[in-house]
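quick one: flavin-adenine dinucleotide bound model?
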Amino acid sequence: MKKILIVGGVAGGATAAARLRRLSEKDEIIMFERDEYISFANCGLPYYIGNVIKDRNDLLVQTIEGMTERFNLDIRNFSEVIDINRLSKTVTVKKVKTGETYQESYDVLILSPGAKPIFPPIEGIKEASNLFVLRNIPDTDAIYRFIETKKPKTAVVVGGGFIGVEMAENLCERGIKVTIVEKLPQVLAPLDFEMAQIVHRELNAHGVNLVLGDGLLSFANNGRTINLESGQSIETDLIILSIGVVPENTLAKKADLLVGPRGHIAVTAKLETMDASTNQVVEGVYAIGDAIQVKDFVSNTDTAIALAWPANRQGRIVADIIHGVDTQYNGSMGTSVLKVFNLTVSATGNNQRTAEMKKIPVQAIHAHRNNHASYYPGATNIDLKLIYNPETLEILGAQAIGQDGTEKRIDVIATAIKLKAKITQLSDLELAYAPSYSSAKDPVNILGYIAENVIAGFYKVAYVQHVSELEKQGALFLDVRTPIEFETGALPGAINLEVDQLRSNLHLLGDSKDRPIVVNCQVGLRAYVAIMILKNLGYTNLYNLSGGYSTYKAFKYELNSAAIGAIKSAKVDETTGMSTPTALHDNSKVVDVSGMQCPGPLMATYKAVQDINEGDGVKIIATDPGFAADVKAWAKTNGHDLLSLNLEGNKYIAEIVKGKKTQAEQTQSNQENATIVLFSGELDKALASMIIAQGAAAQGKHVSIFFTFWGLNALRKDVNVPVKKNFIERMFGFMMPRGANKLPLSSMNMMGMGALMIKGLMKHKNVDQLPIMIKDAQALGVKFIACQMSMDLMGIKHEELIDGVEIGGVGTYIANNENVGTTLFI
Ligand code: FAD
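yep, here:
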């Protein structure tokens, strides 16, 4: 018979106690808990505050009486263990209510004291009477009471971790306007930034204001004012402080047990504690739960994970070890799941940031897949990211954000990681399928297929974070979605060539087959098809933008732009005295695109607005979580009035009135074309023409450049092309600069030195040289017309010009000059 003492009576402690009793009827088991309650549902506390869990008793998973009766335990609440005497194998216990202390001896001691919220000693914190932390039932009761009695209208949650985000949602459920302040540039650190952005959008869409990348400085006015490091101050009725937890290690440190760099109790794989001076195992003293340091299962480095699964698992394992079972704790992966309003946010293993910090080789892939067959009603999108080691093919981690079935995918990947599966084995997992649950190729299989393509070298992966870097390297951005999808938003400078039109429009990609081409579609699939076409046609430098435009759009999400509610207030037109509508007519068209995935809802909106007259309205109902941000930006860019944007359940309801364009806007919209007449054969002027032409083309204008006289020199090939010429023509050809590389500066040319200096500067500043600019302009669809008459006069032949130049006369110029808003003579 053993006498076993347990410190802490909640997740780890209570699990260990129950398992110990199941393994032996003989042992004496005493469990000490400092507070009143044992084995309560910590994880449910925020939901009780939000009135989602209505009955407080539901939080009390086990009562002392119930657990004592079932497991024959000696449970002592309001009993704090304040000392461990390792030599005498006794602990000192303080009765919290009376202050009385006594000794209790042990054969085995298990420490499961958990972790406590960080409470920094910053100015004004003690005086802040409206400030709370959340760890246990008394904390919960205090917050609940404050809300009931003080009826706060506003709250600031400091810290955007799991508890902070859950609290923000639940305070919103109570009708409180919430701001989250977070020092990092994102909430939920287990996610990579582009994934966290999806959560930001969801929080904003539900009215949570985000202040990111800004730290807490001080509190003033008894907590009514929060001062931030940036100088910003926020007025608030209620503060929840959730900036993280630290291990409860006072007892362990007093007993000279070894702790790690962040204060967690160091343990062996058998959960044995160690002596701080000798690092030797301390016989009979074990530690589990939030308080301990564990191995990161993926990287085998030291870490600490404050989650319920590890605490419960360790509780069971420690009991087994005490009873001689040959087992050990294999490390934690931090598999987690969280509800953020209508989204499920789930992750496992290392994220890209962490893996890179640990210098592990990393390849990341993104996918956006429906949770089940799209033809079965109610399919919703899951945004997935998977990280693996391209050298060993080990899976390092994964993140998923969606609705139904999201955490299932993470659980499958977590299982694969635990069983040391390679990334290439994901496609071979035979997963359950019926249309209402999944697809014959489950999203997890798809991640495997994508990884296989990358491993096979079909393409390189470009990350949204690296777009501007690739741009500087002269990459061409090719968007192979439909023009309507392209219209709803695209990468800057991208050219749009639908995948099915690709083969017949290759000339738009320029001459070089080695130029980096970054291909994107909405999610990556059509881009893959396009890449395979190009690859088989000899293009060598192909990138697939990981996650496609969907990931790019999430990455670029503008903080706090997805807020919902009444958007437009009544506005009186000064000339007519009429007020603009603030509500739709009853007979307005309603388009319900619930269940449709991005960009479907936006495309449906585009079509619906196209079909109505100016001043008429349409109501769009969508469930896509990105719709709130999308529709706001789209309406603004296209000059329509977004009257309101509301959320009912999981449905976003947008009311849009088709914009009545002003006279100026109408004139502008007619001016779709721009023409540049380039007379000059000088480098600076040719550069200016290309910059203007590219800018106009990127704005969707049809641009043509009419090269005449000396301007023709910019179009000449830089090699000598054997063509038949008379003597004068040959002389002329010899004296004129051959091609864009040879053009002189208009002033300060200094026998070519000035031009060389400018080119050097351009290189230094990462500005493309003229020949590249010329190609880029062509790729953007800028039409080059060489003046026939000037060519004849100067003896320049068609063969001497670069590819893609049309030869034309004044007729061609005039034809291209119709509907022109801008004509420049350079
Ligand atoms: P705890 O369960 O915290 O238990 C430690 C107990 O020890 C405490 O009751 C403490 O009073 C007692 N104690 C400490 N020192 C002494 C002493 N000297 N003498 C006597 N008693 C002592 N995890 C998830 O995986 N998913 C979730 O959704 C989730 N949600 C959470 C929500 C909230 C609000 C909180 C606070 C935590 C949540 N967690 C969640 C974390 C999870 O609850 C913890 O990881 C888990 O409870 C840790 O178990 P533990 O036994 O180590 O510590």
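The chain has a mean pLDDT of 90.
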